[in-house]
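lol so apparently i was supposed to do this last week
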Amino acid sequence: MLTDYDTYDFAHRRHIGPSPAEMAEMLETVGADSLDALIDETVPKSIRQAAALDWPQMTEHAILARMRELADRNRVTVSMIGQGYHDTVTPPAIQRNILENPAWYTAYTPYQPEIAQGRLEALLNFQTMISDLTGLPIANASLLDEATACAEAMVMAKRVAKSKSAAFFVDAGCHPQNIAVMRTRAEPLGIELIVDRPEALDPEAVFGAIFQYPGTHGHLNDFTDQIAALHDAQALGIVACDLLALCLLKEPGAMGADIAVGSAQRFGVPLGYGGPHAAFFACADAYKRHMPGRLVGVSVDSHGNKAFRLSLQTREQHIRREKATSNVCTAQALLAVMASFYAVFHGPKGLHHIATHVHAHAVALRDALTGAGFTVAPEAVFDTLTVDVGAMQGVIWRAARAEGITLRKVGADRIGIACDELTDAEVLTRLLRAFGIEGQIAATRSDIPAGLQRQSDYLTHPIFHMNRAEAEMMRYMRRLADRDLALDRAMIPLGSCTMKLNAAVEMMPVSFPEFSRLHPFAPAEDAEGYKEMIDELAERLCVITGYDAMSMQPNSGAQGEYAGLLTIARYHAARGETRRICLIPTSAHGTNPASAQMAGMKVVVVKAAENGDIDVEDFRQKAEAAGDDLAACMITYPSTHGVFEDTVREVCEITHKHGGQVYLDGANLNALVGLAKPGEFGADVSHLNLHKTFCIPHGGGGPGMGPIGVKAHLAPHLPGDPLTGEGAVSAAPYGSASILPISYAYVMMMGGAGLTQATKVAILSANYIAARLKGAFDVLFSGRNGRIAHECIIDTRPFADSAHVTVDDVAKRLIDNGFHPPTMSWPVAGTLMIEPTESEPKPELDRFCDAMLAIRAEIAAIEAGEIDAENNPVKNAPHTMEDLVRDWDRPYSREAGCFPPGAFRVDKYWPPVNRVDNAAGDRNLVCTCPPVEEYLEAAE
Ligand SMILES: Cc1ncc(COP(=O)(O)O)c(C=O)c1O
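anyway here it is w/ pyridoxal-5'-phosphate bound
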């Protein structure tokens, strides 16, 4: 090396925040001789891995070249496969200003509404759009994929239907991947699936039924009669539908449907070889408190101004645990935002135009094929048709491939064709040539049977009628982004969420067309680059975790939990054992018990000891009591208390002794990579939140990826392919494949040594914060030598008595300092869980610590009676610009209120609203866009 400064060292120069000199200072503060000494004091020897991770680091330019090489091994054709996935035009303004904009993609789930008004508004637009198009009054802010949404609808129907039946009817015209995922979900819950043609439905025999509209082979049916019959039998009617089709077709609400689900993918979200895409879920008003996923609602702030927030959080796993409505945590917020902007960008007329374009091409195609003597079904089409080609299937399919078009093979003798936004006369000419038909055809007419035509308006809200010039669109996207606090402005110290750097270079390949424009069911020969990348990533993840096999299917951590527990259940079943009990410590994340319940297991809660660790004696007793019924335990390591427990091996051994399997929640893997491998110290299966440890951005509440790693004995029981296997948990074989390049690039650029160093620095940074806050705040839990893992929990409960200050007050005051509050009241009520990650440079860590100490000083002033106990900067936080300019009658200065230590003077972050009233929003649930006058008032 020419100098000792390697500017291309991504791991140490770009990803890891503190410089070597800063690290030396931090080590001094924590009182450790060196980074390695700190790690030795912190991580139990008994779990340390023997061999170092050993692959080399790549530079940013080398990884881009590698990604290009892999991309070149994928082949993009004109995809006319359909089956729930369609090519679409992502408006460049949305691609650049949302998908590729860190202000949008690095935000966290909007649990702190004051710093999330922008994305909450965009998500409310999404809900309004879904509600309008489906004709149902209430819609959530996205689910993981259409197949999962179908399964969620089925389970919700079971919960709310008055029918006592245990059977559920599935229209055989549903997309096969939807049926596969519903089958997986039904089995452990004892739901019998009846898959048949809609005509065969016996409403008395089921608690609900789902119909696909248009059907997977293009059929358009009006399900009004079936749904009415279901209602007579106290059962629910569900329609899985296509948003674009609903621009022309009678909507599910008009058919009387109780629930409508589907995917918003074709609203400007790239195919991505399966995802990520936003699924939607809409329902009748009566069921709104039972619906899965997150729901954005409208409330007011402390000045009575309109403010958005996540509603009905009391339904969620964090509170209801195994009784929760569903386990959905991370969803698809960023993609829902993109889809909502697609609707804003085009407006109802634009969407109607696109739908008509798609439909007219399908009609022209149908007419040309029937004119040439082919038998085509159905008679009435929206975008998809199925051609009877007999023994010619292979020949025609290959001829189309030669024309650069990929079609769907249906059975042995039919071919499915789906038109999309990009279908034009030239594509149809090539396609018809494959069928042996020469000549041009023109798409000139629409042909939807009168009874199926949509009668109602949609997207009438002014937000979908704003000026659509790009200048206006760009500014609207910018305005919303500016209301939010994402990683591009400040550290987000959310414990358990690992809000680390999502490097620009990691994000770039996501937009390569060779990754973004592949259909999930494209022939394998078109996805060789993907396969190589996914295999290589899975292999590295196996090395990192000590597991033998990896399933890349789950789309989130919680879906990984569910997949992992099903894998365990199938393993027991294959050995002829029925085991149902799952031991879960009180400190577990709420998704753990919710997932266990979904997998058909019975949750037995294990106590925490005084110091926060698992109470091993209680664990032992409960494992013994479960005996032959012990299916699994679910533990998190390091624990959600931010501690490396010494007893983890013992807990694994007890579980194994009783024949159970160890599920280790991998959400905290950022404290383990390169130091310890769950697969080596006793765990059998883990999910990995790639959207935490492996740099996939949180997107304001998704996307995510939660692949599961397993030991060899569980490998045969991993989720199967949704089309050809059994036990699928996602619609697409590799879940949200198009975001895997992010994790791949991270793992390759860091190299084994860089990843290990990142873990060590994450632990150093957390200990540094704990050391700096010591004395001012109690750090609730610590492990060996008083050290903590990669996060720390500080206690704010004493301030309730001493100063009437709550955890909310401290969190909201941090917003004035320009920070996203840490994780609040989990796993212990009244605490803050702080996780800095390795990516934050020391000046940012110090800015945060200074802010926390300044808040502590304010609390001390309240305790000492120096400032009013109710009218003070902490209680009134956060402060808005409006506060600054309105009459100031407070017993503290404007400066003290609005510019506390840590807040930037010039680049000050101003929350757009004051503290949001949570209860008011739940009492008066409004989940679609409020009238435009309120927007105007807010802007004035
Ligand atoms: C400990 C733990 N387990 C599981 C999850 C669920 O992961 P996801 O949100 O990806 O579903 C989380 C998410 O924050 C978590 O912190």
